[in-house]
């Protein structure tokens, strides 16, 4: 770890004020990704702005009409165990419960995960499939516009995520095939249906991060049933290849996970 | 049997401090004025160092010293050694390239040690390391063994133009060729034994300290054998004379072989302590451990098994390439030779065996002993071949094994080993019963109805443990003897300290050794303390590896206890006014035969020390005895493991549904601890079979350099184990112990792969059988079925 200045803030406003003054400062949420990266000297921010004392304002889960609002500092554990989330979007609670291990789930936050946009992270698939909106200290960004590439988002320097708003779907499910070593998603498929709109998103597989599987969406829009996916497969092009899975295997797993997710969403 | 004696499942005495965080590991030791070492490591797999400029780094805050290979050479500190001489077929000695603790002009793998920076804090040392300018001339690297031995491959050490350390062989080639010439059936197989990273929970660490007043060094280090470390550091590397060098291995959190060896970092810390005049500490982080701990396994093997018309095994030939990495680590040369080929007979009567092993240099981390060391590799070859031979000849694999088992003992194999006792069919029959082998067909059908593939795999393993008779290993090239020592110190009121040359780093010696003493002396187990891991306290000893602490280490204690009892009888004789020949010792009491006169052990101890009842000229006062035990043979633990898997053909995910282990470890001191060793060993074996694999890319970068990519088995990868035992007591030591530490890791890999290949109906699935590999095999199986 290199030297840095540490700031603790108790509000989003103070956090963003500080960030504006320190060009290469970083927000510290759960620290599950940021701190190991700093320890390995792969990141060297001049300052850390610790959001943990602002948790009271930045964390929490609220049901507002047909939406669920989740504060950026809400821990994965709290999303997984929230009665509100379990009732309204059980797939989202399931997903949060599959992230990492108990220690990671008690520290890691939804804001940190979304801001980081790891191509193998679970949350991005949910945000994109559920058509969520990311609220920042400056604006609202739709998930479609938010995830722009590997570890890249629409966030501007110093921009702070304050909460994520999820419209409640009529049906949804997440199926994760974990990487055997890291247990991040090697292939994760989130399917969601809201009214006529069906979305199928894939994380872990794409070489530029989370993406929507158009062919699968079209087939399921016609009829939201596993039979609609017969004969439909993902192409290996643009998928990652590594020692754990080559592109062909990942493409195959997208089909398997999609079918299993549809069955699960349909209560099968 | 008493509640704390031999055979009782006594709870581990050491666990109170371990599970309450009160263990004292090397990293817990902090010396006054301690400085920190950071090693600048090579980012290249193969490069010459044109220039090394430390000037700017030396001026960084907190820096005390920066040393390079030149400094270590100037101090006449020798290189790291390989302590086992192997000769090639043609009689020439192995080609050992120099192994300096800090690189001298050349680096040979990613992680090789270029310089050490010693500073007030670790962060300062690391900051300074980034200011060192190294001008490398990057050379082509070679990581693949087949490439390394090709004409024109980059030469790693000048002593070996073809990167070959040795071309070694064992067995009778002519007899084996003759057996193959008359064979009815020949089974052939190409195998990869995947490279593993040991990953003990505690990484390596060292604190070097120098006391100018006495001109003596102390090295605190994570070692499985502190005396061997002292011997090597003193006699070969030249740090100091043995009496001026104390090596302390305090609590050690797992070793699995990787902490046997004498490495660069520990050497540099103790040497540098005198040079900088400050204690020097280094604790490996996990990334360094991946790069620089000696790795395990890494064989490429072609093997053939010859059968006669009755399906009896008549010949075996094996050709193995063993990757030894960029340098020869301490015992590396022996692992793929004498710890491997002598086990190729397995549990089978195979009259002719011939094995060739080529040791190969590559630009990768050194490879040395890792749990099982050679024997898992041998078992994998034998048990895969046997399984496939059974399938090819349409024989039930259990029946095929029963037909070929060795049935009478002692049995001389064609590859050195003389098996003393065993009952292989008893273990197999028990395992078949426990695993409900008979009904596997029904279970396969039930899985098929769910769209799953089920398979069962047997592994009948044997290992040579209790290493080893000193004269025997000496004749095979070992630089040391492999006896063990013990000293039993009885205190004046009858409590006992046992000083043992064995070292516990998870095995539970503080409990099992105390059980033996409690049992034999008839004293409470809490009155017994086990002392180990400090060369100033404990007499010369050889340490713990090769499942030797029970069979060899406890035999030394047993022998010392004999002497204590004999001496005690003499003291008791004076106290009871009888002759020593008339004294019996039982249940902690010395008594005069045929009378009710007796005296307890504690009183005899007191009398021995106050020496009031006898003349000190006739009988020496005190009660303290030492012994060295040199075994007369290896021990041969053997058993049968049966693994049953269920595979999801859609994803390739393998779930281990059942695991049956029936082991013959001879006599067992503490069944609970033994079962724990079995569980841990299977976990590591399953890790090798399903998850673990270390991979370098073509340029020599380690791809699997963290847990993000190197897959360690997790609790949910492992089944619940069904463990049973058979027992044929070992005749070559007084306790009848064979050893249990490595069995699981040896038995498990072929059991898993035999089960998977049974499920997918496919002859070979390489380790690690990841979901990707199994999915491919399942796809092929489905395609083949469709074609049929
Ligand atoms: C062992 C382990 C296993 C894991 N397994 C998984 C897994 O299976 N699936 C998965 O999805 N993830 C996994 N993770 C990652 C985990 O989910 C982390 O929680 C997440 O990646 C980062 O969240 P954090 O709160 O820790 O953020 P931090 O590490 O604190 O920050 C990450 C980045 O986000 C920025 N940031 C944080 N909060 C905000 C904000 N409110 N606004 C703007 N920027 C912000 C930071 O500045 C930093 O750049 C794992 C992590 C570990 C250590």
Structural topology:
The complex is a heterodimer of chains A (268) and B (788).
Chain A: E1 5-8, H1 12-21, E2 25-28, H2 34-39, E3 47-50, H3 55-58, E4 61-64, E5 67-71, H4 76-81, H5 83-88, H6 90-97, H7 102-107, H8 110-116, H9 123-129, E6 133-136, E7 140-142, H10 143-146, E8 147-149, E9 152-153, E10 161-167, E11 171-178, E12 185-194, E13 197-203, E14 211-212, H11 214-222, H12 247-265
Parallel strand pairs in A: 1-3, 2-3
Antiparallel strand pairs in A: 4-5, 5-10, 6-7, 6-10, 8-9, 11-12, 12-13, 13-14
Chain B: H1 15-19, E1 35-41, E2 47-53, H2 55-58, E3 63-68, H3 69-74, E4 106-107, E5 113-119, H4 122-129, E6 133-138, H5 145-148, E7 164-171, H6 173-181, E8 185-193, E9 205-211, E10 216-221, H7 226-236, E11 245-248, H8 264-276, E12 280-283, H9 286-292, E13 299-307, E14 313-325, E15 353-361, H10 375-392, H11 397-404, E16 411-412, E17 418-419, H12 424-434, H13 440-449, E18 453-462, H14 470-475, E19 484-490, E20 496-500, H15 509-521, E21 528-531, H16 549-576, E22 583-586, E23 589-592, E24 598-600, H17 601-610, E25 624-629, E26 638-648, E27 653-664, H18 671-691, E28 721-725, H19 743-760, H20 771-787
Parallel strand pairs in B: 1-12, 10-11, 14-15, 20-21, 27-28
Antiparallel strand pairs in B: 1-5, 2-4, 2-6, 3-5, 7-15, 8-13, 9-10, 9-12, 13-14, 16-17, 18-26, 19-20, 19-25, 22-23, 23-24, 26-27
Helix pairs in contact in B: 10-19, 15-16, 16-17, 18-19, 19-20
Bound molecules: flavin-adenine dinucleotide.
């Amino acid at each position: 770890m290199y030297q840095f200045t540490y700031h603790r803030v108790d509000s989003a406003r103070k956090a963003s004020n500080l960030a504006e003054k320190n060009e290469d400062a970083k927000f510290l949420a759960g620290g599950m990704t940021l701190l190991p990266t700093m320890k390995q000297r792969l990141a060297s921010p001049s300052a850390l702005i610790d959001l943990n004392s602002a948790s009271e304002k930045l964390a929490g889960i609220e049901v507002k009409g047909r939406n669920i609002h989740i504060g950026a500092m809400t821990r994965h554990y709290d999303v997984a165990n929230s009665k509100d989330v379990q009732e309204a979007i059980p797939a989202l609670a399931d997903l949060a419960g599959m992230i990492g291990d108990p220690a990671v789930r008690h520290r890691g936050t939804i804001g940190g995960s979304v801001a980081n946009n790891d191509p193998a992270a679970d949350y991005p698939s949910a945000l994109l499939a559920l058509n969520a909106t990311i609220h920042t200290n400056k604006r609202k960004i739709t998930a479609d516009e938010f995830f722009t590439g590997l570890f890249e988002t629409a966030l501007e320097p110093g921009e702070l995520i304050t909460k994520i708003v999820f419209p409640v779907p009529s049906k949804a499910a997440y199926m994760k095939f974990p990487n055997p070593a890291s247990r991040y998603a090697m292939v994760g498929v989130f399917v969601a249906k809201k009214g006529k709109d069906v979305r199928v998103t894939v994380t872990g597989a794409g070489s530029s991060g989370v993406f929507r599987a158009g062919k699968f969406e079209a087939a399921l829009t016609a009829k939201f049933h596993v039979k609609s996916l017969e004969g439909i497969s993902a192409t290996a092009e643009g998928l990652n290849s590594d020692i754990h899975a080559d592109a062909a295997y990942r493409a195959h797993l997208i089909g398997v996970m999609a079918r299993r997710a549809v069955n699960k969403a349909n209560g099968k | 049997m008493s509640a704390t004696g031999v055979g009782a499942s006594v709870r581990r005495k050491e666990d109170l401090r371990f599970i309450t965080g009160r263990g004292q590991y090397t990293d817990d030791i902090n010396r006054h004025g301690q400085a920190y070492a950071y090693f600048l490591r090579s980012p290249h797999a193969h490069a010459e160092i044109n220039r090394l400029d430390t000037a700017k780094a030396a001026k960084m805050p907190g820096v005390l010293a920066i040393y390079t290979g030149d400094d270590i050479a100037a101090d006449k500190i020798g290189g790291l050694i390989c302590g086992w001489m192997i000769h090639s077929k043609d009689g020439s000695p192995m080609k050992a390239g120099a192994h300096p603790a800090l690189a001298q002009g050349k680096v040979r793998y990613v992680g090789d040690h270029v310089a050490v920076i010693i500073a007030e804090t670790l962060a300062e040392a690391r900051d300074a390391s980034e200011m060192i300018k190294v001008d490398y001339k990057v050379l082509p690297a070679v990581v693949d063994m087949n490439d390394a031995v090709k004409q024109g491959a980059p030469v790693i050490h000048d002593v070996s133009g073809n990167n070959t350390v040795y071309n070694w062989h064992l067995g009778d080639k002519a007899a084996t060729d003759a057996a193959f010439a008359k064979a009815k059936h020949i089974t052939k197989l190409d195998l990869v034994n995947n490279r593993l990273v040991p990953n003990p929970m505690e990484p390596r660490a060292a604190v070097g300290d120098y006391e100018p007043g006495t001109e003596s060094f102390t090295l605190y280090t994570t070692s499985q054998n502190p005396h061997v470390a002292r011997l090597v550091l003193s006699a070969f590397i030249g740090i100091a004379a043995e009496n001026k060098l104390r090596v302390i291995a305090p609590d050690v959190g797992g070793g699995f072989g990787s902490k046997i060896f004498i490495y660069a970092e520990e050497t540099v810390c103790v040497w540098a302590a005198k040079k900088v005049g400050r204690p020097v500490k280094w604790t490996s982080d996990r990334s360094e451990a991946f790069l620089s701990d000696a790795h395990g396994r890494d064989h490429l093997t072609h093997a053939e098994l010859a059968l006669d018309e009755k399906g009896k095994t008549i010949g075996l030939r094996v050709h193995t390439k063993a990757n030894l990495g960029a340098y020869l680590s301490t015992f590396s040369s022996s692992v793929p030779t004498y710890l491997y080929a002598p086990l190729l007979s397995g549990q089978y009567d195979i009259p002719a065996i011939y094995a060739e092993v080529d040791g190969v240099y590559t630009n990768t981390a050194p490879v040395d002993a890792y749990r099982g060391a050679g024997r898992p590799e041998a078992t994998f070859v034998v048990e895969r071949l046997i399984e496939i031979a059974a399938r090819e000849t349409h024989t039930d694999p259990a029946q095929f094994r029963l037909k070929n088992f060795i049935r009478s003992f002692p049995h001389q194999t064609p590859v050195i080993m003389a098996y003393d006792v065993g009952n292989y069919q008893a273990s197999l029959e028990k395992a078949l019963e426990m695993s409900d082998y008979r009904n596997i067909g029904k279970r396969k059908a039930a899985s098929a109805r769910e769209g799953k593939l089920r398979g069962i795999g047997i592994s009948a393993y044997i290992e040579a443990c209790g290493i080893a008779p000193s004269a025997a290993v000496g004749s095979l090239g070992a630089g040391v003897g492999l006896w063990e020592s013990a000293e039993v110190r009885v205190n004046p009121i009858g409590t006992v300290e046992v000083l043992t040359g064995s070292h516990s780093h998870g095995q539970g010696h503080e409990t099992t050794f105390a059980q033996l003493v409690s049992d034999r002396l008839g004293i409470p187990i809490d009155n017994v303390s086990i002392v180990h891991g400090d060369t100033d306290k404990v007499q010369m000893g050889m340490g713990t590896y090769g499942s030797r602490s029970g069979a060899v280490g406890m035999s030394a204690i047993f022998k010392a206890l004999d002497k204590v009892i004999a001496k005690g009888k003499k003291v008791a004789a004076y106290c009871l006014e009888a002759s020593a020949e008339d004294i019996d010792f039982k249940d902690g009491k010395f008594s005069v035969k045929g009378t009710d006169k007796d005296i307890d052990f504690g009183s005899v101890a007191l009398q021995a020390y106050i020496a009031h009842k006898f003349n000190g000229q006739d009988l020496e006062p005190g009660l303290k005895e030492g012994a060295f035990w040199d075994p007369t043979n290896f021990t041969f633990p053997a058993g049968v493991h049966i693994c049953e898997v269920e595979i999801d053909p859609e994803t390739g995910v393998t779930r281990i549904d059942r695991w049956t282990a029936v082991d013959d470890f001879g006599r067992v001191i503490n069944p609970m601890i033994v079962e724990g060793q079995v569980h841990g060993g299977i976990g590591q074996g399953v890790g090798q079979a399903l998850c673990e694999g270390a991979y370098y890319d073509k340029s020599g970068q380690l791809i699997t350099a963290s847990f993000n990519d190197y897959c360690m088995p997790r609790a949910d990868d492992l089944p619940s184990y069904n463990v049973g035992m058979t027992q044929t007591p070992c005749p070559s030591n007084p306790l009848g112990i064979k050893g249990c530490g490595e069995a699981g890791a040896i038995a498990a890999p072929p059991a898993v792969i035999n089960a998977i290949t049974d499920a997918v109906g496919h002859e070979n699935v390489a380790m690690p059988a990841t979901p990707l590999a199994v999915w491919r095999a399942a796809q092929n199986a489905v395609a083949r079925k469709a074609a049929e």
